[in-house]
Automatic annotation (TrEMBL):
The lineage of its organism: Bacteria, Bacillati, Actinomycetota, Actinomycetes, Streptosporangiales. It comes from the Bacteria. Keywords: DNA-binding. Gene3D superfamilies: 1.10.1660.10. One of its GO terms (molecular function) is DNA binding. Residues 1-40, 117-183 form the HTH merR-type domain. This is DNA-binding transcriptional MerR regulator.
């Protein structure tokens, strides 16, 4: 098989095939008397495995997996896969924690106008020092008045403070609250975040299915590979 034969199946360029071989993603190709690369069905299966792994694990991790397999370090490849699955599990746990936190939230009233640290702390029944601590933890980001240097809390800042206050009363730690507030801030509020979380869950499910497909393709490639030579030979 020529590089173009491998490339055509996946809509790749022949240079991409050569690059994959040089990177160790494909096993080394034999050369003709004139120096041309020749590939076999083994290389075709390696390419299918790599592209399937990319969909679930990403390009860098898929590359590391294939490099390990091609140097007969299958245990290293399996460890990399395990670590990638562990990351997916962590992402799922984070999503579940955020969803649980959202369920615990009461509606946050829409605020208008700016306020300062003292009035806001009195309104919530907390100390100004608590708001300063939350600021240091990244939960809230009030701007500073350029003339006085006082903290100024806009409507979005007050929303974040109220959310943090609710979650603290619900027993959440600051390090658990920070990612949620960051998600709310990025989404522009709690309501848009709910849609974002659904999309996040869908992406995680798609990633999990892609990992299954990648595992099947890699297993097929492992079955095609010759057994490694005993050490010392």
């Amino acid at each position: 098989m020529r590089p173009v034969d491998l490339a055509r199946e996946h809509g790749l360029s022949t240079q991409a095939i050569r690059n994959y071989e040089d990177a160790g993603i494909l096993p080394a190709a034999e050369r003709t008397a004139h120096g041309y690369r020749t590939y076999t069905p083994l290389h075709a299966q390696a390419l299918r495995a790599f592209l399937a792994l990319v969909a679930g694990h990403g390009h860098q991790t898929a590359t590391s997996i294939m490099q390990a397999v091609n140097r007969d370090a299958t245990d290293d490849a399996l460890r990399i896969i395990d670590e990638s699955h562990a990351q997916l599990l962590d992402d799922r746990r984070t999503l579940l924690a955020v969803e649980a936190a959202l369920r615990d939230l009461a509606p946050v009233p829409q605020e208008r106008g700016d306020t300062f640290i003292g009035p806001l702390a009195r309104r919530l029944g907390i100390r100004p020092a608590t708001l300063r601590k939350w600021e240091r933890s990244g939960l809230v980001r009030p701007r500073r008045d350029p003339q006085t240097g006082y903290r100024v809390y806009g409507a979005a800042d007050v929303r974040d403070v109220r959310l943090a206050h609710q979650l603290r009363r619900g027993g959440y730690l600051l390090e658990q609250i920070a990612p949620l507030i960051g998600q709310v801030r990025s989404a522009g509020g709690v309501a848009p975040l709910e849609s974002t979380l659904r999309e996040w869950g869908e992406r995680l499910s798609a990633r999990g299915r892609a990992m299954l497909a990648g595992a099947a393709a890699l297993d097929a490639y492992l079955d095609c590979r010759p057994a490694p030579s005993p050490r010392g030979e």
